[in-house]
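At this stage, I wrote out one protein's amino acid sequence and its C-alpha cells, and that material follows here:
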Amino acid sequence: MKLNLSPFIVFIIGIILAFSNTLNRYDIILVGEVHTDENDHRVQLELIKELHKYGKKIVIGMEMFQQPFQKYLDDYIEGKISEEEFLEKTEYKKRWGFDFKYYKDILEFARQNKIKVYALNIPSEELKVIKDKGINNAESKFLPKPIPTLSENEIKELEEVLKNHPQIKDKKAFFDIQLAWNYSMAYKIYQLKKENPDYVVLALVGKGHTEGIKRILNILDKDLKVFIYN
C-alpha cells in the first residue's frame, strides 16, 4: 500500500535524516507519542527505518505491551504465531486497547528485519496493588528498591493534570501510579541497554512519560546518553 505523507510528515522525516548522525551518539532514544496520533506513529516508523537503513543496531521497547507477555511478543516477531493469536495472548485489547493499526506497521517492519521488540509496561495487576498499598509498600520485581521519588517539576505537572481531572480523588495513589509507570519502564530500558551494550534502545512511549523516564535512567546510570524525540 502506498502511503501518502502530509507535508508535515515530509518535514519531520527531513529532520530525522538531518539528525541521524546526532542520534548515533546516544545509548537510548525515547520517542514520544500521542497514542491516537497517526503522524506520531509514522514518525516512529520512519525513525526506525532510517536507523536500520544506515546499519545502526537497535532494539525496540514498547509501552503498549506488559512485561509478563514477552514470550508472545517474541513469538510474533519470529513469525511463530498469527496477529490474531498475538493480540489474544498478550491481552492487547484489555491491557492497552488503542487500535492496533497504530502499531501494526512498526511491528511488521521489525518482523521483516528481525529486530527484537521488548514489552516495557508494568502489569495492570501491579498498579492495582500500588493504588491500594502505596508504591513503597508494594513488593514488585518490576520496581526494584530503592524507588526514586518524583521531581519537583513532575509534581507540578501532575498537580496541573489533577486540576483538569477533578474526578481523581486520591492524589497520593495517582502520584504513586505515575511514578511506578515511569520507573518500571525506565528500569526495563536500563536492563535492555545493559543486556545489549552495542545496541541503541529505541523506546516508544507516551509523551507524558519521556522526561520522567529520562530522569530515572540517569539516576540508574548517570553516564547513559538519552535523547528525547517528542
About this structure: The first helix runs from residue 7 to 23.
